[in-house]
Design brief:
The chain is built from 14 helices and 17 strands. The protein has about 400 residues and is of the alpha/beta class. It folds into two domains: about 260 residues, Alkaline Phosphatase, subunit A; about 110 residues, Phosphopentomutase (Alpha-Beta Plaits, 2-Layer Sandwich). The strands form four sheets. The protein has an eight-stranded mixed sheet, with helices on both faces. It has a five-stranded mixed sheet with strand order 4-5-6-7-10, with helices on both faces. A two-stranded antiparallel ribbon has the order 2-16. Strand 5 and strand 6 form a beta hairpin. Helix 1 packs across helix 12, helix 10 packs parallel to helix 12 and helix 11 packs antiparallel against helix 12. The mean pLDDT is about 95.
Length: about 400
């Protein structure tokens, strides 16, 4: 048996009840995109019940009405952990609820503590750093890229998330050297409980700098076991695609494919679905482009088209799977490209669960309602493999 979990990064579907605590009242990634483009073209997600979820969380998606009969079980999930970042969202859907949010650095210069900066310079031998503030990655590279090339000082910046990001030109610091800088930064950032350190290599010349596909994330150590550990310990092969391995520090993962970008991850997912295996297999996939390329850059059309590409590959994916195999689609937080600012948004996420070979179901019977925690997904997937669920969460049905 195979279960494939596809995370459409930042695919939110309506502000959470506590969105006011984050300045995110009124955010709705899926609906905002629909309004911006006129009408979405996501027919397979619509048939699965995406429009029904939008109705459940408060506002319809233009072009994606509720289905009278759905091809999947559907619902919405609320994050119980504080925060709205990648690590928090993925960890919670894998069974870990955080007691407090990862700390974020101040947005204005200087963002980073003086001691952290001094230790980073001392331990890496770099001639100093540039940036030291919250910024969009493409913006700060355009702003400081030339000075970085002349000075060899890495561009270090943060965001509204708990991150320490390092951008360097590939001709000044080859990717392997940048990764070493990040490994040092990760060790130093542990003291501050920073969620992630991220490598952001770029290339090109002034006025035409471009980030490469060699981004890499270093997450903070996990506080316990996750869905991946529980399944692996129970004899299920666990396979990670995209940045999943980095988010979970490879913990509980048998095979990790660090593919970059949605197209590479889609190809890998199809390849894995095509493979015949003797035992059970869980495939955990992150599709990052919606967040990284379109959400943060406030590009609703690009975001729409990225989701449309995911939507279009779903029939092929299903055709490669065996009867009884399961496809799960969700998000990890929001990043409404029509909302203010350039940061993540505190939103519900959809959850769509399709069992290959199952028939149509009425919308009423297909609903699992609004779940109070992403952890419900972890225990549901464990139950699908016939395992006694471990960790937090309340399982929901995946077939009628």
């Amino acid at each position: 048996m195979k279960v494939i979990l596809l995370v459409i990064d930042s695919f939110g579907i309506g502000a959470l009840p506590d969105a006011s605590d984050y300045g995110d009242v009124g955010s709705n990634t899926a609906v905002g995109i629909g309004k911006a483009v006129g009408a979405v073209q996501w027919p397979n997600l619509q048939a699965m019940g995406l429009g029904n979820i939008a109705e459940m969380t408060g506002e319809l998606i233009p072009g994606c009405p509720p289905a009278e009969k759905t091809t999947a079980v559907f619902g919405a999930m609320r994050g119980r952990s504080p925060g709205k970042d990648t690590t928090t969202g993925h960890w919670e859907m894998a069974g870990i609820v955080l007691d407090k949010a990862f700390p974020v650095f101040p947005g204005d210069y200087p963002s980073f503590p003086e001691e952290l900066v001094n230790d980073f310079i001392s331990e890496t031998g770099v001639p100093g750093i540039l940036g030291n503030k919250a910024a969009s990655g493409t913006t700060i590279i355009g702003e400081l890229g030339s000075e970085h090339i002349e000075s060899r000082k890495p561009i270090c910046y943060t965001s509204a998330d708990s991150v320490f990001q390092i951008a360097t030109h590939t001709e000044i610091y080859p990717v392997t050297e940048l990764y070493k800088l990040c490994e040092t930064a990760r060790k130093l950032c542990d003291t501050y409980n920073v969620g992630r350190v991220i490598a952001r290599p770029f290339e090109g010349r002034p006025e035409n700098f471009k980030r490469t596909s060699d981004r890499h994330d270093w997450s903070i150590e996990l506080p316990g076991k996750t869905l991946l550990d529980f399944l692996k310990d129970g004899g299920v092969e666990t396979v990670a695609v995209g940045k999943i391995g980095s988010i979970f520090l490879e913990q509980g993962i048998d095979v990790s494919h660090h593919d970059t970008g949605n197209e590479a991850c889609i190809r890998r997912t199809l390849e894995l679905a095509r493979e015949k295996t003797d035992g059970d297999r869980f495939i955990f996939v992150n599709l990052v482009d919606t967040d990284m390329i379109y959400g943060h850059r406030r590009d609703p059309q690009g975001y729409h088209d990225a989701v449309a590409r995911i939507d279009a590959f779903l029939p092929e994916l299903e055709s490669l799977m065996d009867e009884g195999d399961i496809i799960v689609i969700t998000g990890d937080h929001g990043c409404d490209p029509t909302f203010k600012g350039t940061d993540h948004t505190r939103e519900h996420v959809p959850v769509l669960v399709k069992t290959v070979g199952s028939g149509l179901r009425s919308a009423e019977k297909g609903s699992v309602g609004i779940r109070e925690s992403f952890t419900d997904l972890s225990v549901t997937i464990q139950s699908a493999f016939g395992k006694a669920p471990a960790g937090e969460g309340m399982p929901f049905r995946i077939v009628n």
